[in-house]
Design brief:
By secondary structure, the protein is mainly alpha-helical. It contains 45 helices and 15 strands. 62% of the residues lie in helices and 6% in strands. Keywords: DNA-binding, Repeat, Transcription, Transcription regulation.
Length: 1018
Amino acid sequence: MEFRILGPLAVSDGGTNGVPDRDDRDVDIGGAGKPRLLLALLLSRARSPAPIEWLTGAMWGDHPPPSARRNIQLYVYRLRRVLGPDRILGHRDAYSVDASDEEVDALRFRRLTGEGDAALAEGDHRRAAERFKEALALWRGEPYGDFPECVPLAFEAHRLAQLRIAVQERRAEAELALGRCTTLIPDLSELASRHSLNERFSAQLMLALYRAGRRGEALETFQRIRGELVAELGLEPGAELRELHRRMLADDVRLQPHSGPPSRLPPDIGDFVGRDDDLILIEKHLSAREPRAGTSAVPVVVVSGQGGVGKSALAVRAAHRLRQSYPGGALYIRLRGTEEQPLPPMEALERLLRVLDADAPADGAGLDEMAGLFRQALHGRRMLVVLDDAASVEQVRPLIPGDHGCGVIVTSRRRLAGLPSAGQVEMRVLSEAEGVRLLSRVAGHERMRAEPDEAAEVVRLCAGLPLAVRIAAARLATRPYWAISDLVGRLADERRRLDELAVDDLDVRASVALGYRGLTADQRRALRLISLLGSSGFATWAVAALLGLPSDRALELVEELVDHRLLEVVCGRGPDLRCRTHDLVRVYAAERAAAVEPPERIAAAVERVTVASLRMTGAMSARLPLALPRTHRPPEQAGHGEPEAALGPGWFAAEEEFLVGLVERAAQTGLDELAYALTEALVHALFAVGNRFDLWNRALDAAHAAAKAARSHRAEAAVESGLGQLRYCEDRFADAKRHFGRALLLYRELGDAYGEANTLNGLGTVHKELGEHREAIPLLTRSRRMCRELGDGEGVAHALYGLGVAFRELGADRRALGRLGLAARAFRLVGHQPGEIIAVRGIGLVFRARGDLARAEEWCAEAHRRAAGLTDRHLRCYTGQALAKVWLRTGRTAEAERLLAPTLETSAELGDRFGTALALRTIGEAHLAAGRPGPALDHLHLAMATWEDMEHDLWAARTRRDMGAARALLDGCAAAHDVWRSALRVFTRTGVREAGELTAWRRRWGCECDLSDAHVER
């Protein structure tokens, strides 16, 4: 049966090889009724089922009748009666036509066009012209011309019409190469007239006239075309037409048909975008008109990059631009390097020798003899050889000419570094601007201008891969009723993304699959499991843990996948190598993992790498001492021999995105305990150190999702505890108390002594920070006792430190010194250097509060000296501030100010609001000590704004006390009274030692009057 849609819809009941015979009968499928429209719609999607929902919209628009689905079933019944019961197939909520490619004229048109393109690429212009002519003969009018009101068919008809124009251009190219100028002129005249703005037809008409000896008519044609373009568009003709006109005026001999071998290059791509630097590199290497002095080497350029990055397009564009440098012509051959059976060098040489009309090789000739014949055929000619899609150096080496007047461009997914004298061009994905430009050229500039952000998002979702961007653009071009945001929504779902990135013979999934099929079994497994690591970069140690392999074997696999262009190197080398997967490769590999890997194997792989991450985090962490103790005991797991000692201090900075992604993956895989444990480890090790609250929130969100899925009180307690720690480090103390309180209740209900003990510690620490020391002491005392019974040395150390601070604030100095001394020792016993340092600093603060400044300086200087030996800049902020304040008390104001400047800068950079306000307040005190009340007030006001924003009454009161001193210096004692009274009320309520220090403080600033309240120092 023959289905004809390249014109009004027609069906006949016979035909040979898809070509109608004279005796064929037309099948009556009715006039312009709905069954006929349904058949046309099904034929427009002949290679895939048409969903009923789509058919309904196409047939009735936005307002289908309630009986639409039933009507479609009735039309299907009628079509089956006419066409046969097996022609219309039913699927789940969809229908399709069972018709072969040869039975549908549009599909046959595509096949013939493809054969013509292949012949044109190989330089067989006669066969190309025949195939193009046969394809064009299938057209009988406008496709789907009897359904002008159906929007999807109108768009499909437009797409087919554009393909027809492209085939007409290529047929004319083949006919011109064969010298059939006179017979071609009438057809080209009609085409140039019908498509007056298509400069390609006009150029071909001019060339045909010129070669037919009608030079004057050719020049007149140019003037006519120029006049039309200027009148209609206000534009001059394009570069191709202008250059052709210039050459005709000069009677350039190159306008005549080639006397030597014609070019075998495929057509250049009209919407080629960017790559200017790459083109310059290729041309610089190959464009010398004569061989370089002192060398006989053939210049070779290897263009390499991942599948779909545009290597072939770049090579063809460069070859067309290099034509003048290679007057002997150009050879092109596709070596099928990414297919299961690459083209053997012998067969490639046979094809090239046929193109060159060289002497046939003797029977039984070997590879060396064939290569010699090829080099002999090229001797004395300046020809460019394009070897596209090479598999290996061994495949390419016999195809390199021996004559140094020739040049070679090789494209390959691999670098082929073994080729001698080869220049390397490494292709990258498109930038956002280049990707949007490609979208604009294919899908239209107006649409990109209407939705610029959505256009950029399409490029991002395509990961800048030219093949993917081109497919996305083609989908938009054939669906002008889509908004770009519609496509963004389709691409955003990773499970559907590769389905969306396929149109006609362009298919991202197929491109990636070519590389995947070329891998060994071990390499495939590695790529599948690596897809579990997400889109951020990952290091070799993570791959080793993921695969359960030794580090050296994991590194080998990673480097092999890099060579195959399925991984990208981010930085580093050897054991420190960091890589990432291109997003679309990762999506494909994840598909294969879901199809091939059993769920238990995936879970085991994620468990291995999560456990390794826990070990590495614990081993490399500096552990911020002001962070809270763990409230969740990590599960006991065996390690996998990670090389902790090989990692430097920058490890966390490099791994932070990866580790957060791993928490999310572990939670998705159902590894709840590990997800919570890694989240808390990161809180203590990474996020609190750098105040990376965005990453901490991501990790907690993942843990929270796992908790909800598990419906576990233990999981809920862990999440509440984590939120308490996060809010504490964000200086959101009221929220921190609320979350810790919820966690405490849950841990008590569960009977989890470890969680309860350390949640008590966290809750007590928050009370202590808020100046609620009477509430903090019993919580921390109970926590200390429980932690000691549980053998949790770190929890004991944290509780002792909190108790020491609380006692100091309440003026119980002897007890404060005792607890802080024990805290320093406890931190030392568990190997917690920063904790020991902060406890030493705390001892110095007790002596400073007592007025023993010599011993205060001794202890604070020791803390700062030790902190300088660590990489923790955050810790140095606090030790530096403490020492600077001692220096202010001893009159060393200039030294203190020099120490405070970097402290303020670092605290602000790390997002530590408490530390920033503390530094601002201390700088204000320095200005007071130096007799500069104006600058002092400026800094104190900034500190006050932060304290008030944090709702931290005690530190706000301390800052008001200093502001009162500045007011006293500026405007006299009376101006300070209200400020001091406000501070005094807070000191009295909280019971801190400053409540009894007001008299000494007022006298220091020359104020002897009575505030008649109570008493203000710090």
